[in-house]
């Protein structure tokens, strides 16, 4: 595999960096012109482990959290706009609700609601198909700053997260796409504590690849939509067959560097690798945001004060508990209303 640097990044040698197994919590973009393929590889270590440990997810749910976070990064990191990429599932399985919030360019958080007894009954090896069941997967682009908000929705039909993502691209984007998602638990050497990791790889076929890849568009396939028949390009068939050889451990093993994975898959082709995008687990919540949220509700819907006379709100993403004075919340609400009246 030949590496060709496309972007500048300090004085670090790109080849040394991507072949270093210590490179973690990142998205690595790449392109293979001979196959008309663009792709991204995600590696998550401490970021996903922090999310799992904070919520105390059982193993099947932890694995699903890793896969969902990976999928959100594979899709969201392709956007050229600032803002947020939000991946959300609502379904009838043991996991009823899952939200992954990716704040571009680097902040990741996630939360999952699940029935612990149902997860235990499903078994330790239960995959996303069993945990999610049927429902829908929504992917939202929130540009922030008053910009438009776009959403694409695809059905969860009992085949799991990866299959739903493939369906979305086949129906809504018409971009040939192949991806692999994996999450796993590894025992730390000499620590006696396990750590969760996740990883994934996505390739997309862009004939005449000199054109730039498109952002994830809004909208879903209309009712009665029929897929466009297209002849399989030999180059795309080769790319898919190579990606399908990926095993879970290659995406989650901390001893296998990102560059090693790409070299193993595409060793017969010149692979252009871009600078990796660093990712960190960090929640966006704050005392001020919680106050503004409470102020948007009528006084009788803001919750009952605790023994100290304060309203308690716990963030579902990071489990931080905020305690607010009801009088301060009401004053904030009245000030906001006055500003709106003045704007009119």
Describe this entry's structure for a reader.
It is a single chain. The protein contains eleven helices and 14 strands. Strands 1, 2, 8, 9, 10 and 11 form a six-stranded antiparallel sheet that branches. A six-stranded mixed sheet has the order 7-6-3-4-5-12. The chain is an alpha+beta fold and 344 residues long. It folds into two domains: 14-281, Hsp33 domain (3-Layer(bab) Sandwich); 287-343, CBS domain Like (Alpha-Beta Complex), CATH 3.90.1280. The chain is globular. The chain has helices at 14-18, 46-55, 59-76, 116-122, 128-132, 161-173, 234-243, 248-252, 258-265, 287-295, 326-343, and strands at 26-32, 37-44, 84-91, 95-103, 107-114, 134-142, 149-157, 177-187, 194-205, 272-273, 277-278, 280-281, 311-314, 321-324. The model is unreliable at 6-11, 209-223 and 225-231 (pLDDT under 50).
């Amino acid at each position: 595999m030949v590496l060709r640097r496309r972007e500048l990044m300090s004085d670090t040698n790109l080849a040394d960096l991507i072949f270093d197994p210590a490179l973690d919590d990142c998205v690595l973009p790449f392109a293979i012109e001979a196959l008309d393929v663009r792709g991204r590889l995600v590696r998550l270590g401490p970021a996903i482990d922090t999310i799992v440990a904070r919520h105390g997810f059982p193993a099947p749910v932890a694995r699903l959290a890793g896969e969902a976070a990976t999928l959100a990064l594979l899709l969201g990191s392709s956007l050229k706009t600032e803002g947020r990429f939000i991946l959300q599932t609502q379904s009838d399985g043991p996991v009823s609700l899952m939200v992954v919030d990716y704040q571009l360019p680097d902040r990741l958080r996630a939360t999952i609601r699940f029935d612990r007894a149902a997860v235990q009954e499903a078994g330790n090896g239960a995959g996303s198909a069993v945990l999610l069941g049927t429902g829908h997967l929504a992917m939202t682009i929130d540009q922030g700053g008053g910009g438009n908000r776009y959403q694409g929705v695809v059905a969860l039909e009992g085949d799991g997260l990866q299959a739903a993502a493939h369906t979305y691209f086949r129906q809504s984007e018409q971009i040939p796409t192949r991806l692999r998602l994996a999450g796993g638990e590894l025992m730390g050497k000499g620590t006696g504590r396990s750590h969760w990791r996740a990883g994934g790889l996505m390739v997309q076929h862009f004939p005449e690849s000199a054109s730039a890849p498109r952002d994830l568009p809004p909208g879903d396939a209309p009712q009665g939509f029929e897929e466009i028949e297209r002849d399989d390009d030999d180059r795309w068939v080769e790319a898919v067959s190579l990606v399908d050889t990926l095993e879970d451990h290659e995406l989650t093993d901390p001893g296998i560097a990102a560059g090693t994975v790409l070299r193993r898959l595409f060793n017969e082709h010149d692979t252009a690798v871009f600078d990796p995008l660093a990712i960190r687990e960090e929640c966006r919540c704050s005392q001020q945001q919680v106050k503004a949220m409470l102020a948007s509700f009528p006084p009788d819907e803001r919750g009952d004060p605790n023994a100290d006379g304060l309203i308690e709100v716990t963030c579902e993403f990071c489990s931080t508990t905020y305690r607010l004075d009801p009088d301060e919340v009401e004053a904030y609400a009245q000030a906001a209303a006055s500003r709106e009246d003045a704007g009119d």
